Amino acid sequence: MKNFFKIFTGLYILFLVSCQPKELIFEDSICIQNISTIDPMDGLKENQTVIITNGKIHKIGNTDSLLLSADNNIIDGTGKYLIPGLWDAHVHFAYIEEIAPLMFDMFLSAGITSVRDTGGKVDFVKLWKDKALTKPTTAPRVMMAGPLLDGEPNVYDGSDASHPELSVGLSSVEDVISQIETLINKDVDLLKAYEMLSPEQFKKVNELAKANGIKVTGHVPLSMDVISAANAGLNSMEHLRNLELSCASNSDELLAERQKMLADGNDMAGGKLRTSIHTAQRENALKNYDETKADEVLNVLKEKNVWQIPTLALNTFLSNKYFADPEYQKSYLQLPDSIAKHWKNRSNVLKDFPMSEAFAAQVDFNLKMVKKVYEKGIPLMAGTDTPIAYLTPGLSLHEELEALVNTGIPPLEALKTATYNPAKYFNMEGELGSIKENMWADLVILNTNPLEDIQNTRDIEVVIKEGQIYVSEDMKADLKIFRN
Ligand SMILES: [Zn+2]
């Protein structure tokens, strides 16, 4: 009885306390009050208050029950939307080295708080990864692959401006082993296999990646087909590259022909040899596209959990012509003058460039396959290939999201490809990619609802990286948190 009384008294006091409207103070915190949160898994929740402390999401509650003292650092989220910080899952710091020093700011201002570098000289990319690690609130998180692991002749050999030295040409399986040992010592987060590898080399890349607990992404080597690459352990495919060659009714003949061309073209430059194979086979493969064969290939990709980074804006660039829009071209002003000028000139030439029948067929294939990949439940990630093809670092990710939605993928699912999915790809879904307590506070406040129109991901008010707030000067004046 005595015990019961104690419990009863305790409950009674708790009841009284909870009846009092209690205004809470969160020291050294930022409180985003009365915002609609959009979690990639749970969808939209209205009237939420989110407390950020020590770089992490400390607490999330309903605005009516989580009452805040006016002494807190409050951002009024009324009428606004909170999404997780975005990822661009396919970038190249090393493609135009002059742009690299500007990329952190360009990514952050576009709401991108994490990137995945898919190929470049390892020491150059590592410089940016290390910079980001030293000051994580000032830069996006950088996950890197190191150089493209290519066979010989290698494609990105530094021979001209469109083939900068992004790859290493490996002539044997032994070369693969020693190169990967070097990369593991430099803390790469994944490996990138490229198109000129032999099947034996490709198998070794996958075997060593597994042994070191990291993933292999890549272009399916021209010496293989998609099914054998998936069976060898490929974890993800960039650009749906060479998928069409495996979805044709004559895919076996095409493979035999490719292997012969590779053997015969041994003394050609890598870029030329690759182009000659693509030219000889792509149109042929698309003409012989076979729905049953495509289903067979996609079923293997699903079964083996081979992620897809379709870089759809890039793959369809001559049909969607994002670069032709004067609004889009304004983003070039963020680049060094000479590059901005060159990009603008090229954009204006290309905007009137007629699309060939072959390219149109390739575009149709890409659009169709992205939809199929999504419907099969094969995981997708949004990536751009910036700064290739006038894809401005930052803004281009929003073009990619729009391109994904235009295939019929719902906006929330498209958001997932740039938030939760890349986090999961790197086994980091317990730390970021969702709006949940204890996650890193990598967040973006939008003025308008991206679920109604995916273009609204561009309507950014505030970007938060591990608790550090970034706003434009105009916005600062409106936010109490920045007033003295
Ligand atoms: Zn790339």
Automatic annotation (TrEMBL):
InterPro entries: Amidohydro-rel, Metal-dep_hydrolase_composite, Metal_Hydrolase, Metallo-dep_Hydrolase. One of its GO terms (molecular function) is hydrolase activity, acting on carbon-nitrogen (but not peptide) bonds. Keywords: Hydrolase. Residues 81-469 form the Amidohydrolase-related domain. PANTHER family: ALPHA-D-RIBOSE 1-METHYLPHOSPHONATE 5-TRIPHOSPHATE DIPHOSPHATASE. This is Hydrolase.
